[in-house]
Fold this sequence. Notes:
The chain has helices at residues 16-30, 53-64, 85-95, 106-115, 130-143, 158-170, 186-193, 229-235, 243-246, 267-270, 277-300; strands at 42-47, 68-72, 98-102, 120-124, 149-153, 173-177, 214-217, 252-255. By secondary structure, the protein is α/β, with parallel strands linked by helices. The strands form 2 sheets. The protein has a 4-stranded parallel β-sheet, with helices on both faces. It has a 4-stranded parallel β-sheet with strand order 6-5-7-8, with helices on one face. GO terms for molecular function: amino acid binding; ornithine carbamoyltransferase activity.
Amino acid sequence: MPLATxxxxxxxxxxxxxxxxxxxxxxxxxxxxxxxxxxxxTLGMIFEKPSTRTRISFETGMTRLGGHAMFLGPDDLxxxxxxPLRDTARVLGRYVDAVMARLFDHADxxxxxxxxDCPVINGLTDEAHxxxxxxxxxTIREFVGEDAxxxxxxxxxxxxxSFVVGAAMAGIDVRVATPDEYGMDPAVFERAAAFGADVExxxxxxxxxxxxDVVYTDVWISMGxxxxxxxxxxxxxxxxxxxxxxxxxxxxxMHCLPAHRGEEIxxxxxxxxRALAWEQAENRMHAQNALLxxxxxxxxxxxx
Length: 304
């Protein structure tokens, strides 16, 4: 059955049952067990932020599904040149079958969804990265199992916030260690609690590692935060995922990439057998393909 939601802006826009079904479909599509198609469908992709994985995974994924993806960068639209975002959304909704947007302000993707007469997918905002969470949960299913414990170590950023909520929906135990001044929005833990999770954040990274199956980290200095570099590096002292931190554990290591080797993670850890970063990157495409099919299959008039 198609998703109850018309848009995918946050991971909890879907229900736990829908999330489970999405991951099932992604796994089946990845294994070649089912080949749903979206012939002639067009995905408009709006990019305020540059990207490697987001652009390539969506563009390649649409090609594999029989559709077409259109890159729309800052110089390809009237955004920033006088046209309100709601007007752009109204026009796009009359041309394309879905919109994927990679933006700074989360309110902007909400405006797109409100005014575009087609599904809108959040490809990343400063608050959330739900497509990455889909890929993360698929990766954990494959390499750890659904009965997993994950330690988030580092910045309480958009990737971490979406992951905490998504993990709660999937029944995965999550522990969070961040510096005081770079923690997650408390509302994230309230959303996770709605799915039965009791996440108590800490400022001690070592305390969250005992029994962890996975240690997940991300960059400390995100795009647009370069002027905070000196301040952040000092605040994150002791949070680097390195051999010393991982000593005595068999935990796998996740990173959504790009990685700043030598900052949040060391080169030897990222290049070790522990690392699942490359599997996460591949699974972006498979998870997003499943999402696109769930959102668009009825409109395309095609089944599996």
